[in-house]
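#struct-pred

JT: dropping the chains for the assembly here, can someone run the whole complex?
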Amino acid sequence: MHLLRIALAALMLGGGAAVLAQTGRDVPPAASTANPSGQNPTAASVREDQLLRELNKLQGRVSIPDGKAALLEQPQGREWRQFREGWLPWIGGIAILGMLLALFGFYFTKGRIRLDQTEESGVKILRFNAFERFMHWLTAVCFIVLALTGLNYIFGKRLLMPIIGPDAFAALSQWGKYAHNYLAWPFMLGLLLMLIVWVKDNIPNRVDVAWIRKGGGFLGDAHPSAYRFNAGQKMIFWIVVIGGLLMSATGILMLFPFSATDINGMQLTQAVHAVIGVLFIAAILAHIYIGSLGMEGAYDAMGSGEVDLAWARRHHDLWVEEQRAKTASGPQVHGARPVPAE
Amino acid sequence: MARMKFLCDADRCIECNACVTACKNEHEVPWGINRRRVVTLNDGKPSERSISMACMHCTDAPCAAVCPVNCFFTTADAVVLHSKDLCIGCGYCFYACPFGAPQYPRVGNFGSRGKMDKCTYCAGGPEADLTTAEYEKYGSNRLAEGKLPLCAEMCSTKALLAGDGEIIAQIYKERVVKRGYGSGAWGWKTAYRETVAI
Amino acid sequence: MLTKRKSGEASRGKLQSFASGLASGVIDRRSFLRQSGLAVGGLAAAGSIQLGAVRKARAAGTAVSGPQVQIKKNICTHCSVGCTVTAEVVNGVWVGQEPSWDSPINRGTHCAKGAAIRELVHSERRLKYPVKLVDGQWQRVSWDQAINEIGDKLLDIRQKYGADSAYWLGSAKYTNEAAYLLRKFGAFWGTNSVDHQARICHSTTVAGVANTWGYGAQTNSYNDIRNAKTMIIMGGNPAEAHPISMQHVLSGKEINRANMIVIDPRFTRTAAHATEYVRLRSGTDIPLVWGILWHIFQNGWEDKEFIRQRVYGMEDVRKEVAKWTPDEVERVTGVPGEQLKRVAYLFSHEKPATVIWCMGATQHTVGTANVRALCILALATGNVGKPGTGANIFRGHTNVQGATDLGLDISTLPLYYGLVEGAWRHWARVWDVSYDWLQSRFDEVPAKAGRPARTRKQNMEAPGITSTRWFDGVNLPEDQVDQKANIKAMMVFGHGGNTVTRIPEAVEGVNKLELLVVADPHPTSFATMGNRKDGVYLLPICTSLEMDGSRTASNRSLQWGEQIVKPAFESKNDYEFLYLLAKKLGFAEELFKNIKVENNVPVPEDILREINRGGWSTGYCGQSPERLKAHMRNQHKFDLVTLRAPKDDPEVGGDYYGLPWPCWGKPEIRHPGTHILYNTNLHVKEGGGAFRARFGVERNGQTLLAEDSYPVGSELTDGYPEITFGILKKLGWDKDLTPDELATIQRIGGNNVDAVSWAIDLSGGIQRVCLERGVMHYGNGKARANAWNLPDPIPVHREPIYSPKPELVAKYPTRPDERQFRIPNNGFTVQKAAVDKNIARSFPIILSSGRLVEYEGGGEETRSNPWLAELQQDMFVEINPADAAERGIKDGAWVWVLGPENNAKTKVKALVTERVGKGVAWMPFHFAGWYQGEDHRSRYPAGTDPVVLGESVNTVTTYGFDPVTGMQETKVTLCQIQAA
Amino acid sequence: MKTIILAIVAAVLLAGAAAYLLSVNQKPAYQAFSTTGARVTPTDNLVGPNWSGDPQGRGAGHRG
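RK: done, full complex below.
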C-alpha cells in the first residue's frame, strides 16, 4: 500500500504532481566483469524474485520502438488497482456524502441566513463586473461537468450502470471522457483568469484573523468587518486555486501520458488527481451551498453582479468605504430602478 | 475445468520472436500494436535472459477491476477477455496491468486512443465463435477450434508454454529437475499469486 | 465523433441482469453475450463490411477450419534447418498457418521468419510484373518482350565477347531441381561462371572438410545433437541463424546435462545459454583450436587408437600445435590458458562431443584452414562417425546445401564431379548430349599478359570467377582477367546485392555492365546500385512456396515441397523462366531432352529423376520423387533422435527422414540414406560408412587406407581403395552384376572397362554389389590431418588483412599474392599497405558482421515483410560502452561507421551494449537501400521498396579472399565510429 | 443569466477547439512506432477501418 501513502503525503505537502521520471535503470547484473569470457552464463542467470526485491520492477530491452514495451513487469499495477478500487471510492464517498450531510444538517439547524430589514436600502452597488462574472461562470460550468464526468469514472459503474445498462453507460462514459478531456481546457483558462483578477483581493490580512475569531458571524450575531472578500471567501479562493492548479497539472500529465513520467508516475498522478478531485468537489459543494441556498441575496453578487448597498455595508463594510473613496461621486448607482430583493 | 496460463521458460527463450510474428500472422495484428513482445533483461551480460510477454490472464485481473465501464469478462477457463464495443479507450487498464499488455490503435494523448486491444489467448471476444466479426475485432479463435495459442505452439525452443496451469507447471518442474537449473516461472507470483516451486 | 451504438435492440431488461451477473464475478461468454445485448443476430450486420481480398476468402468460410480448407505442406524458404510449413488454403488463397507437428525437425515450431512466411506470397511489396530501366525510369514490359530483349543482348554479348562474359549468379533459395537446371544451363551456355550464396557461406567448409575426410557437409544432424555430452559452438550463433536447431541443442543440453561451450568474439543470444563462454579476438580461430589441442596433446588426452586406425598425418599437426603454448595463445587470441585447458578436458573426456560452426569460422582469408583445424580437433579426440559427435556444420539458406551439391559452384559440375574430362563425359552421358558439342560451347582464350592461351577443352576444365569478385571481373583491366573478355552481363537469380564485401566497387561494376538482369520475387538492392540509365531488367520470380520441388536441409535430408498457391501477380517459377530463356538462346531441346515440359513449365519430378540418374558420386541416386513424397506423408513415423522410421513400415520402413545423402543405388534397392556420415558401427546398407579413400592409397611410405577399422558386416575387413570394375573383377564379385548392369559398364568403359568407377557406373551395379557385401564402394580410407594439396597442408595462423595488431602481421602474414579463379588475389600487398599506413591507429575498432533472427540474407524479402520489419526498423552498430563513452555516443543516436577502403562511410544507429568487447563493433548485414548516408528508396520501382531500408555493412567491409575458395572476409576488418 | 449562457457557449467553443487540437496531435500507432528507416502500409484488422478501434463507425479515417 505504499502507493497510497505517497499519494497522501503528496497531498499533505500540497506539492504538484510528483513528476517521477524514473528512467529505466538497468538491472544490476549478477556478475558483470569487464570480460565475460570464462563465465558460466547458464548459472549466472537473473532470477525474478531477486530482481523484484532489488528493483521492484523489471526493465529490459526490446527491439521495437515502443519503449514502454521494455517494462516486463511492474507489480505496482496491483497496488494502484487496490487504491483505485478499494480506497478511492471510500475517500470520495465519505468526502462528498460527508459534506452533503454537513450542509444538510446546517441547513436544518441554522437555517437560511435571512436578509434583515436594515439590509434592504433598495440601492444597488456593483459587486462583480461582467467579465468577473463571465470568468466565474466559465470555470463553474466546466467544473460541474468535469466533476460529474470525473465521478463517473469512480462511481459510474457502481451506481449508474446498473440503472441504465452497460451499453448506454458505455456511450455515456465515452461522451463523459470526451467532455472531461476537452472541457478541462476552458476550466483551466477560467481558473487562470480568476487567479489573475482576484488574487490581489484575496491576500489574507489582520481583518481576516478577527473575522475567523468571531466565527464569521455565525457564532455571535455581530458582523465582523471585511474587505471585498472575507476570510471564508479567501479560503475558498485559495482552495480553488491550489486545488485547480493541482488538478490541471495532474490532468495535463494524464492527458499526455508518458510524456513526462513512466508508468508509476502515471499511477501516482492519477491517484493525486482523483483524491484532490473528490476533496475539491466537496469543497465546492459548500461554496455552492453558501452562495445560493445558505445566504439570502448572495447569489445576486454573481447573478446580476449588484448587491444591496446596506447588505454590502453590513457584510463588506471596509470594501464599501474603499469604493466610496475611489468614486468621489458616491456609490455606483445603476439606474434608479429599485430592484426588489428576491 | 482448465485454468489457462502462460509460462515462459527463460532458460530456453532465445528471443527469436516466433511468438511475436505467429501472433501477428494468426490475427493480422496491425503495425504498432504489439500484443506480444520479447523483453531481454541484462542484455549483453552473462546473466542475460529473454522472456516473452503478452497478457498473463491474471487471477482477479487488475485491468478488469479498474475498467470504468467494466468491459472485461473472464471465461470459464480463466481467459481474461474484453468487449471492444463497450471500451471507451481510457487507458486505465494499461496503468493497472503489471505486464503492459493493453495496446491502443492511436498514440499521442488520452483523448481519442481508440479501443484497447490485447492478447486474447487466441480465444477471440464476446462475438460468436469463429465468425468474421470476431476475426475483425479480436482475431482468430483457436480455443474454439480445440487448439492452443499459436505463439506457444510455434515457439522455436518450446520455451513458451500455454495451456492448463497445472500441466504446464508440471512440464516446467520436470524440466528443471532434469536439467538442474531454472530461473522461475516469470510473472506467476504477480499474475496468479502462486508460482511453480522449483 | 459519436460512436454509433447497437441498433436499438438493447432492451433495458436484458441489460439489467447483465450488471448483476457481473457483480457475481465469473460469467461465461454466452451469458455475457446475451445479457449485454450483443446477441448473435445483432452482429451479423457487422460482418457485412467489405474487406481486402484475403479476408474475403476468410469471409467465405465462417472460420479457417471450415470444410473448404486444404492443407498444403512445403518447406520454409529461409534457413537450412528445413522446417515444414503447414499452410491452410481456401479458394486458392493462403489464409493461415498451422504448426507442423509431424515433422521430426521442427515438431510444430517455427522462428520469427517461419511463423511470418505466409506474408511472402501476397506481400504488396513484391515485384509484380517485369520492368525495364528506360532512361532512368522503370517501365513495365511483358514477359515475352523481356525475354526476347534479354536473349538478343546475351547472344550479342556472346558473339562479341564470348560465353564467359555472361555471369550466372544462382540462388541458395532455389529448389534442387532449379539449381541443377541452372548448372546444366550454364554448361550448355558454355561457362563455368555459375555460382551462388554458398561462396560467401560455407564454400571454405566444403573445400576444407571434403579435403579432410571425403564429403564437405554436416556429418551428423540437428536431431543427433540431442546425443551430445559436450558441444563446442565456435563462430556460430544458432539462436539467431538457426533458431529451431536450438530446440535440439537446448534439449540435448538439458537431457544430458551437456557442456555447451560457445566461442565467439561477441556475447550472442547463444552464448547466453552456454555453460562456458570463451571470448576471442576475431580472426584468431586457429591459434585457439591449437591452444585447445596443445592441452590435449600435453596431457595425452587424444584418442590414440582412433588416430592410428583412421587418421593420417596427425604428427605433422603435433609439430605445429607444439608452437602454440598457452601464453602465445593468450597473446594472439586474448583467451587465458586456464580456460582452454578446461575446454580441452571437457571435449576430450565428456564424450560424445560435437563441434558446431557457422560463418564465424568460414568467412575469413583463412576460412578453409579454420574448418580443417576444427575437423582435426574432432579427429584427435575420436569425435567423428558416432551419434552425438561429428562436425555439425550449420548451413545458411534453405537450399544452400542442395544448390552446392547440384553444382552451383564455379569449380565443379553437379554432385562434386569436378571439371575434369571424366566429369564432363559422365554428365554428357547422363544429359544424353555429345561431349564434343559441350566442348564447342566454351570460349577459346587467347594468350594474355604472358599467360598461355587456353583451348576450349582447357577453358572447359578451368573454374570460373567467384561471386565474391564478379565486379573485379568487370572492373579490372582486360589483361588481368584470365578469360576471353571481361564480364559484361550479370544474370542475378535470387541473390541480394549487399551480401558481398566492397560494395562501392560493386557499384562501379554495375555501372560498367552492358546487361543486368535480376530475377527475384523482389527488386533487390541491385536495382538501386549505381546510376544506370538503361540495360536493367527486373523479372518477378515466385518463391519456392509457390512451386513444387525438393530442397536439401543442412543435415543432408531432402524434403519435397508442394505448391501452396499459384505464383503471385505475374511471377513465373524458376523452371519456366529457364525454359523460356533456353528456348530463346536456342538450346532448349538439348537442355530438356529427357525432361517433360508442360505448357512451358518443366516438370520438377522429371528433373529430380535425371538427377537420380546421374547422382552416383554423392548418393543423390536413391531419392526418387515418389520416395520423398512418401516421407512427407509419413513424417510422424520418424524417430526424434535417430530420424529413422520403424523397419516394418510398408511405405518408409527403415528409412532415415528425408533420405539424407548419400542414399546409394537406384531407388528400387531402397537404401535408407545416411543419417551419420563415416559411421563404421552400422552396416553400409543401414547407413554405415567410412572415411573416403579419395586421396590415393599411400603417401611418403604411410598407408592412406584405414587400419583394422571397417564398417560392420563388411566382407573386406581392412582399409580398401575406391571400388572400380577392375577391383570388382579381382575380388570375383563381378559375377554378381546383372547382364544389363554389365552391358552399361562396358558401354561406359569402352576400351578401359576396368577404370569404370562406382561414381560413373550409370547402372548402379557396382554400388549394389558392394552394398550387398557390406563394402563402402568409395573406399575405406584415413582422414587427412595433413592435406598436402591445399595451400597450407597443416592449418597455420595468418592475421586478417586488416589486423588490429600490426606487430603480429609480421610474424603471421597472410599468404603471398597469387592468381586465383582467373584474377589476381593481392591480399599480401593490401595487408602490407594497411600496416605501412598504420590503418590500425586511424581505424582502431575491429568490425565484425553477422545475422539477425528477424532477417535473412540480403534482407530484401524479409525487410518487405511488415511482421518482421517492425521488429528491426533501423540498421545499427553494436558498440561497447567504453568505446561509446570515448566518442560521446549515446544509445540510439546516429553515428558514422567509416571503412578503411574507398573512404566508405555508413550512417547507422548506435546500440551501446556489452555484447561486444572493448575495441570491437558488430553490424548486421541484412540492410540495404541507404548508401553512404543517402536514402535510395525512390530508386525502387513504384511500390516495391521494402518496408525497412538501411545502410549495408558491406559498404565498409574490405578486401580479403580465401586462397582455396575465394571466400570474402566479412567477419573481421577495421573501422572507425564517430557521432553523426 | 446572460453571462452564464455566454460562459457555457465559450466553454463549448473552447472545448471544441481543444478537441480539434488534441485529435490533430493524435497519431495512429503505425506512425508513432515506425522510425525513419520504415515506410509502412497500414492494415486495419482488430482496430477497424478508421483506426478508432470502433469496427462499425466509418468516421474520418487515417487511411493510407
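JT: nice. The domain at 79-326 of chain A is CATH 1.20.950.20 (Fumarate Reductase Cytochrome B subunit). The first strand of chain A starts at residue 58 and ends at 59.
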